[in-house]
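Submission sheet (multi-component)
Chains listed below:
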Amino acid sequence: MKIPFFQPCIDGETELSVLEVLRSGWLTTGSKTLEFEKKFAEYVGTDNAVMVNSGTAALHLCMAALDLQPGDEVITTPYTFAATAEVVEYFNAKPVFVDVRKDTLNINEKSIEERINSRTRAIIPVHFAGHPCEMNTIMEIADRHNLLIVEDAAHCTPAYYQGRPVGSLGHCTCFSFYANKCITTGEGGMVTTADSSLADKIRSLRLHGLSKDAVNRYQKSGSWEYDIIARGYKYNPTDISAAIGLGQLKQADSFHRERKKIAAWYTERLQDIPEIHIPKEAGGVDSSWHLFPIRLCGQLQGRRNGVIDELRKREISVSVHFKPLHLHSYYADKYAYRPEDFPVANEAYQGLITLPVYPGLNDKQVDFIVKNLIEILHE
Ligand SMILES: *Cc1c(COP(=O)(O)O)cnc(C)c1O
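Outcome: structure written.
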């Protein structure tokens, strides 16, 4: 039985809507993008959503809207993908890492305040694997120090914190629709915010910093004339990807139910093995279950790479989320980090294996994955 790490799930209706765009004569940002933005804002319960061509672009434009300056600091964690910190580096500003909590691998909110100083401008909490961070505490800290909260919600379509959807919690929230995320547009991203002037700024920055009238050129009211009001970027999405996004958003809740079911199957089968730490939802949290990252503990920790190799030999694809940023050459060299500088992140990474989770993965496949994993561990 061959098990891929991920498989996108695109239905027939979505295929047809893409064909419709292809035949419409309008391929770039247009009415489909507007419709997807409107539906997405409704879905996460906020007023504004701005689509861009990647999750990285979403994060970058939030930093640009903040007018981040060289030497400024932005607090985040090392337990994330390259994008979260690189968007800070773009401005010659400094990503300041705070170690993660042992249970969720999210930012340890208790350690944030000790890293805040006069140069701190923003916090980027990463909702790792789709499990929301302790947002009440983080928002309080941000209020106290007048900082912008930009959530990295790449794993969160959808996730809920105390009954509220991620996307309506912080000042702005960045989603990714990369090929293997909860919902996909091939490549794509979204910024959501309750702040309409921030949304306007990001909408202009995603298209060369053009004035509002020019940004609306694709609408009937638009004119040929444009003014460049800021140094912007070329991050606007296509209507082709927006059409895929609309189809995926319709399925987002049923995808979510399937991922929850898969997480429950893994939990049932793995929870009694003391050497394996499995992810659990904290109270008041409804995770997206984008990923199911298990951690080999104690004696087993050192065997992680061998276990992955053996699973691959048995045609079971797994992954590792993430190799912490401070262990990567660029950050280690630039900031002279040692692995033990962020001990929780470092320790978690050593034993971590991400198991497959995606709609369509059935209980027999989960049985097969778990059976092989246990067999390998007993060897
Ligand atoms: C995927 C991902 C991103 C970047 O999204 P892209 O759409 O690939 O640019 C950012 N942060 C995290 C945590 C991610 O997993």
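Remark: DSSP finds twelve helices and 13 strands in the chain.
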